[in-house]
Amino acid sequence: MLFLLLWELAPRFGLIDATFLPPFSDIVVKGVEFAASGKLWPHVLVSVERAAGGFALGVVTAVPLGLALGWFARLDRYLNPLLQLLRQTNPVSLFPVFILLFGVGYITKVAIIYWVVVWPILLSTTSGVKYVDPALVRYARTLGLSDWKLFRSIILPSAIPSIITGIRLAATYSFLMLVVSEMVGANSGLGYLIMNAQYLMSIHLLYVGVIILALLGIATNYGLVRLERRLTAWKGEEIRG
């Protein structure tokens, strides 16, 4: 709240040039007018669709692969050098490659978001499996659990916090890369809206786009935190027990 108050008062008292940073209330009014006109929501929806596409694809591929790498040490030794090489590749430098392969449409934007999303999920999932409490594993072994039951009952539940952490980090990256992807070869989306507003010196709309992206990120993080609490509710039950 203090930040928003400073944002509101600094331009009004001339501490900051209102041309480049309008008062927060003026931006809200402009955003409401733009939304009421029906012009804002198509940009929001298409951006959410692109970010969700790349993010979902990253989750459904990185989580199973991370579980496999963490559980099967030999597979990890074989694939880790290649994965480390690919992980170090700058996604922005790959953007022209994706454009050459897929054009400038939806697939390219989803692909570049996927590339950014997949690595934090993969690494967190792999680490979560590898570094499960050894005492739990030894205890499970003494009970005679099979490898599958050990994985299902001990490894996977214990790795969930690490998996969710990777997913939360990936969600943040997905919105960052969304803006970059929509600034090139796009005619819709919040990234396009921000870039177009900059060219037209429509500063209010520029900040509207930035604020909406921030709100989407906050909402996504909140949802993932709730999901983590639901999936790890058994921890609270153990403590109460």
Protein model, in words:
It is a single chain. The chain has a domain at 41-132 and 158-231: MetI-like fold. Helix 2 (24-36) crosses helix 10 (203-231), helix 3 (40-71) runs antiparallel to helix 8 and helix 9 (190-199) runs antiparallel to helix 10 (203-231). It is elongated. The protein starts with a helix and ends with a helix. The chain has 241 residues and is mainly α. Helix content is 83%, strand content 0%. It has helices spanning 2-12, 24-36, 40-71, 73-87, 91-102, 106-130, 134-142, 147-182, 190-199, 203-231, 233-240. It is found in: Cell membrane.
Which superfamily, in CATH terms, is the homologous superfamily of the domain at 41-132 and 158-231? MetI-like
Radius of gyration: 22 Å
- If classified by CATH, what would the architecture of the domain at 41-132 and 158-231 be? Orthogonal Bundle
Mean pLDDT: 86
Unreliable spans: none
| Top CATH class of the domain at 41-132 and 158-231 | Mainly Alpha
Strand % is under 5%
CATH topology of the domain at 41-132 and 158-231: MetI-like fold
Shape: elongated
Discrete helix count: 11
Give the % helix: over 70%
Total E-strand runs: 0
Q: Measure the end-to-end span.
A: 40 Å
**SSE order, one letter for each helix or strand:** HHHHHHHHHHH
Main β-sheet description: none
What keywords describe this structure?
0% strand, single chain, MetI-like fold
Write a brief structural summary.
It is a multi-pass membrane protein. With 241 residues, this protein is mainly alpha-helical.
